[in-house]
Amino acid sequence: MFYKSEDNTPVSIDEFHRLHRLLAREYRLLDEERFEEWLGMLHPDIHYWMPGMENRRRENALEHGFFDSQHMALFDDGMRDLKRRVARFLQPSAWAENPATRNVHIVAGVEVFHSEISGEYAVYSTFQSIRARGLDEEYVFSGRRYDTWSDDDGQLKLKKRLILMPNATLNCKNINTFI
Amino acid sequence: MTINIETVDVTNALNDIDQFCDIPNARISGEIFYRSDIYEQELEKVFARCWLFVAHESQFKKAGDYIATTMGEDDVIVVRQKDGSHRAFINACPHRGNKVCFSESGNARGFICNYHGWSFDIAGNLIGQHESGVYEDSNFDASQWGLREVPLIDSYKGLIFANFDAQAPSLKEYLGPMTWYFDALFDNQEGGTEFVGGCIRSTMDCNWKIAAENFVGDILHAGWTHDSAARAMLGGAVSKVSDFDESYSVNWNGHGYEFALDTVGNVAVLGESALNKYLHTIKPSVAERLGDFRSNMIGSVSSATIFPNFSFLPGQNTIRVWQPRGPNKIELYTWVLVNKSAPEDIKEKWRKGAMMTFSPTGVFEMDDGENWEYCTKTARGKVTSKQHLYVGLGPDTLLKDTDLPANVYAGQLNEANSRAFYQYWSDLLKAPNWKAVPDRNVGRTEAGESAAQCVNKEMG
What we know:
- The complex is a heterodimer of chains A (179) and B (460).
- By secondary structure, chain A is an alpha+beta fold.
- Chain A is built from three helices and seven strands; from the N terminus they run H-H-E-E-H-E-E-E-E-E.
- Chain A is globular.
- The mean pLDDT of chain A is 95.
- Chain B is α+β, with helices and mostly antiparallel strands.
- In chain B, 28% of the residues lie in helices and 23% in strands.
- Chain B contains 15 helices and 22 strands.
- Chain B starts with 16 loop residues before the first helix and ends in a 30-residue tail after the last helix.
- Chain A binds chain B through residues 50-52, 54-57, 59-60, 68, 70-77, 81, 84-85, 87-88, 91-97, 168-176, and chain B through 102-108, 196-205, 225, 227-229, 231-233, 271, 331, 334-336, 351-352, 355-356, 359-361, 363, 365-367, 369-370, 373.
- Strand 7 of chain A pairs parallel with strand 14 (200-204) of chain B.
């Protein structure tokens, strides 16, 4: 599983359905602020990565064209980091989260393949995140995700996620959600 | 050949500056965050006159390396020259004004305008055009039509600043004795500092001064605003600033630095014990280099702004520019700073730690953004915008007999730096030129003999 990788073997309809349901459930949990259950869908070894987009000329490409694993990122997290972010959301003193940010996450364009490693799936999708706050604030951004879902104790869990937002400047003040 | 830029005509000062910025009475009004006529004056009298941060020397390795950024709302390119110097040019073609550089960074032999093919070398000279014959037929003098150069560029400890006003004081004079404090972050180890690769950009619907003033001297907000983030990162509340025995607010020419002497209070919130350990490990060598006093500042509870819009947090090592985009919008450009000599795993932990805390996804910055946007938005109310806002904390805290340089105030829970920031801002808005800007500095221009080791705590 990675950016611009060759397609691997497509999965059966049943397997596709299973993965698609996981993606839908994940976004429902996030929209319902069920963060601890969401953490439960993550593999203990998760790498959750949303690199910063850099507006570079083609002849000055970075490691992966517009982004680079050694450069600044919006998320570059392991499980400990994601738990810390969730802990902040759950604090009564997270003043900016009361009243709450109201979220809708949309997933589309789902593709599921067997990865090179047995029992792992490469799952590609596009997303849109819509957040509303206060009376009139609305923030929308979209992008593409490259996931690896892997078996952990008999359950499929998210082990890797690369999130690519096309914007080189985030057009709002923060990303106070998960993608 | 250098092409001089046209200077910006200085329009008359607004006639109600003392009403919306009355520092002797420790009051400002919300309209300074919202009025477009004030903003227009700022672009001319602050951003077209002051030294503005444009790049870090570590972002350039060889000739032709460039960074595109903005000075105020003006697009500029900073380019490394063959002799290793840096020059800054307005990023607009002198023919029809199109941008000549569309990427944020890279290496180029020159810049070619997409519109009519005007081509410039890295020194800004116009060296060719599409259909060049037609220019020859028009007696075109290419030597007059190179890229417009920003007249002043200089650096301090890796930080490159540029200035549109050829009459401005030197960078050294502008920064004054504040550099003594800046060295605690920018020169605490042999080899100096570097930026981690990349730049994270985001926007906030707030006035640029709210953000700049927050870093110039507002630690007061941290214990309250950031309680949730501190508990998430540390498992407890942030250090109670009023518990520190000794802390300071220092300022000069509107720049400000507030700090405690607790060494690791800021770095601790990154939640990476290896970074605390790193700072403790280098501390003895910092003491040797800069003295005991500043060795306590390397990652302490502290923040700073270089007037007008360059800010940093020692310890978290986030570096940022609040780019003005209208009276009630900014773009944040943020970078991560590390010591060049630091081990790679330490640099990596800083890259991630700064992201986790002070970035658009950072658990601390999320709460700042909310506050700053609504400090700005409430001023949309005409009546509200005229009401006074209080900036009076720490009225009698100036330290008169201290060997510490700059204007030194006791305590970091203090609005002395905020007052100095707004005072300098209003002085600039009133002044038709640099000579007319009053010198309000009262402190030492250089550190006294005992500054490096001990501190006189007597209040004036």
